[in-house]
């Protein structure tokens, strides 16, 4: 990207309402200029700044896998000014994308390891990108066993329902889907919080497995001791942070934790790295 503050012009190609309360939608974008699409080369776990002229700009994790290019997808929770405006936009509307930014998940370090994915709520988006990438036929042999613990408040809040069902049917990935509670008599998966399901279903590590953990702070708080008991070292627990951001390129200092800038040095950190940041995590 020549000028890191200049967004690439894109158009909304498709909008999917993900959840029963309509608070989460997935936006698929296509680039107006083919060279921009080529320049927007990203890896799983990175994020981009979505900009709506006259309204504002927000950091959002890339929910699609690089293997799905030229499509780029973002799943957005409606919470304030920019996200509410985005939720009211329609197919074909123009907007801008800056990025990709951040370090992403350590794909090379993940090769030849078992991978445990742990996601809660809408932080599952970049994990979806990672799962989709790992399951592609050209990539699947690069990774060993894949386990996914994914939880939502109730069945209507689960993202990517069709994909979850498709992954559930495969024999090269173990899905452990859970909801906090449900009165649906046909619910066929787990009921209970993510840490409890992790304790019950996740593989032990002892050097063999990397855990990618994304979710609300309370989920992370109670999942950490479970992973420790399962033999995961601090360097085997990899997390993605969502601090407040402005520039996205390490210039404004808005997103720091200690001396680290989440937009540039992260958003992906190992628990070991975060624990070297006194008092912050
Ligand atoms: C690296 C990164 C990746 C992200 N990925 C996603 C994603 O995939 N999907 C998604 O829906 N959101 C994601 N977010 C959060 C998203 O950026 C904010 O929800 C968004 O900026 C809110 O903009 P707004 O103008 O609608 O809200 P505002 O009007 O600015 O604020 C509304 C409310 O949201 C809160 N808020 C604003 N920004 C954040 C933030 N960064 N974290 C937590 N709360 C915030 C405010 O405190 C306020 O309560 C990500 C954030 C970061 C830093
Ligand atoms: S958002 Fe500006 S330094 Fe990170």
- Annotated CATH architecture of the largest domain: 3-Layer(aba) Sandwich
Q: How many strand units?
A: 15
**Count of discrete domains:** 2
At the fourth level of CATH, the homologous superfamily of the largest domain is Nucleotide-binding domain of ferredoxin-NADP reductase (FNR) module
Biggest β-sheet: count, sense, barrel? 7 strands, mixed
SSE-based structural type: alpha/beta
Q: What is the CATH class name of the largest domain?
A: Alpha Beta
What is the CA–CA distance across the termini?
33 Å
The helix tally amounts to 9
Mean pLDDT: 93
Rg estimate, integer Å: 18 Å
What are the low-pLDDT stretches, counting only 5+ consecutive residues below 50?
Answer: none
Helix-strand string = EEHEEEHEHEHEHEEHEHEEEHEH
Q: What percentage of the residues does DSSP assign to strands (E)?
A: 25-35%
Specify the helix fraction band. Answer: 10-25%
Q: Order of strands across the biggest sheet?
A: 10-9-8-7-11-12-15
In short:
This protein is an alpha/beta fold and 281 residues long.
Describe the structure.
By secondary structure, the chain is of the alpha/beta class. It folds into 2 domains: 8-100, Translation factors (Elongation Factor Tu (Ef-tu), domain 3); 107-240, Nucleotide-binding domain of ferredoxin-NADP reductase (FNR) module (Rossmann fold), CATH 3.40.50. It contains 9 helices and 15 strands. Strands 10-9-8-7-11-12-15 form a 7-stranded mixed β-sheet, sandwiched between helices. A hairpin with a 3-residue loop joins strand 3 and strand 4 (56-61).
